[in-house]
Amino acid sequence: MNSTTRSDGDCKSVRRFPTRIFALRLSEAQKTLRQGICIAASFTLAWAAHAQDFSKVEIRTEKLSATTYMLEGSGGNIGVSVGEDAVFVIDDQYAPLTPKIKEAIAKLTPRPVQFVLNTHYHSDHTGGNENFAREGVLIVAHDNVRKRMSSEQLIGFLGMKQAASPKPALPVVTFGGDITFHINGEEVFAFHMPRAHTDGDTIIHFRKSDVIHMGDIFFNGSYPFIDAASGGTADGVIAAADIVLGIATDKTKIIPGHGPLATRKDLQTYRDLLATVTQRIKDLRKAGKSDIEIKAAQPSQQYDEKYGRGFFNAERFVDMMLGVIAR
């Protein structure tokens, strides 16, 4: 999702699946119309390719090192490594954007793409897989990415379905723990983070270039989405952030799944936000508070002005956190 599809809507939590997702009370619907498109619709626009006008999307390229780049368009941020050995791509956004993505890469190198590594299974990160695979590109991902892409998924908190991917879009090479690519003069170390944004997240570290791609484990500048229905947990995201903070220096460039290029300081702020809200919710639960009482206590209030204007507003964010924090 890019800034053109974000919303500051005020939808209530929708925990039923698609046959019920629009069964809102009239007053809630009126409130939503007054304040804008609800956040669930915002994600639907972001993840359902047919709902977007991709002709207006521009691919923006930012150079990070002699061989690595970050590409922004619509969907998850893309990482690219180019050099004498290969063109190595991390995530590929939506299928209709493949020609624009290839055009942006062609401005960096005449070589064709040889590898695509998916950070997780969500379609705004894997939508271009089939297009690239049909051109001979090798698709790589964690075992759980292939498993989830092989069957229809229900993203419960958003009230959305993601259809099973066609066979050519599925990762051909999968791994359980970590994998290393020796390309373009450096080690590209990719490792699994269990139960973070989903159950199949991969973090990629370009060791020589000092660049780290975190996928949707990291939303820079907005409240994140953690997909509980796909195995995501708040504690897993915090643990992943701690690991990257242990690797990164003040010079490290961090590619988030969504948002602008980040620094270690940005990641620390994000990690502390999540840890603080998580602990507050745990403490309130320990004190016997109900979910309604916890939401009324506004555990994210100090962050809402800065972070509650992106993917989720404050109410929606806390509602999501209640579902991804272990009871």
Oligomer: single chain
| Global structural class | alpha/beta
Q: What's the number of helices?
A: 11
Could you give a short account of the major beta sheet?
7 strands, mixed
- CATH domain fold name: Metallo-beta-lactamase, Chain A
Mean pLDDT: 88
Pick out the low-confidence regions: 1-50
For the record, the CATH architecture stands as: 4-Layer Sandwich
Q: Can you write the helix and strand succession as a string?
A: HHEEEEHEHHEHEEEEEEEHEHHHH
Radius of gyration from the CA trace?
19 Å
The fourth-level CATH homologous superfamily is: Ribonuclease Z/Hydroxyacylglutathione hydrolase-like
**Spatial sequence of strands, sheet with the most strands:** 1-2-3-4-5-6-9
Cα shape: globular
CATH class: Alpha Beta
Question: How is this structure best described in words?
Answer:
The chain is of the alpha/beta class and 327 residues long. It has one domain: Metallo-beta-lactamase, Chain A, CATH 3.60.15.10. It is 32% helix and 19% strand. The chain contains 11 helices and 14 strands. It has helices at residues 26-35, 39-47, 98-106, 123-126, 129-133, 143-149, 234-247, 264-286, 291-296, 301-307, 314-324, and strands at residues 60-63, 68-72, 78-82, 87-90, 115-117, 138-142, 153-155, 160-162, 173-175, 178-183, 186-193, 201-206, 211-213, 253-255. The strands form 3 sheets. It has a 7-stranded mixed sheet. Strand 2 and strand 3 form a beta hairpin. The longest helix has 23 residues, at 264-286. The relative contact order is 0.12.
